[in-house]
Predict the structure.
Amino acid sequence: ASTNHDRGASGPRSKRVRAIQARNVPATVLICDDEKNIRRTLAMVLEGLGHRILEAGSGEEAIALLETEEVDLVMLDVRLPRMNGIEALQIIRSKPATASVPVIMISGHASLAEAVHSVQLGAADFLEKPLDRDRVLVSVGNALRSERLQREVNRLRAQVEDRFEMIGESA
């Protein structure tokens, strides 16, 4: 079934989504969900924007991929077999190499308390299933933009510190 959005609707929401897509810079996104159909749907949407997609069916698999791949964003289901998404988020946040990678939590069964807890642990956002395409695009765009801005702030801060260090040495 085709929707107005699929036919190029021109409402304020679709204009906002197109503006986000226009500013989009390709990134590597890890999608971790035990439901293959969810992974495939998200992959199709995000690949359409030029993102490189990695897929994991479990928290353990996602952690292993994060150790070998450079990832810009993780989309992580809360309810996973064995290690749940909250546990995986805690591991991601505890490792220096992945502590700053934005994580968007997704769930069809999570409680409000789980959503709040995941954000308190550092999740960039929390999306409920069934996933709304526009909401996914906005959340992904916001998380990637925020992460890139933080990297730029850190780079500039390091430059300023280096300059002050050089000035202190030459005085």
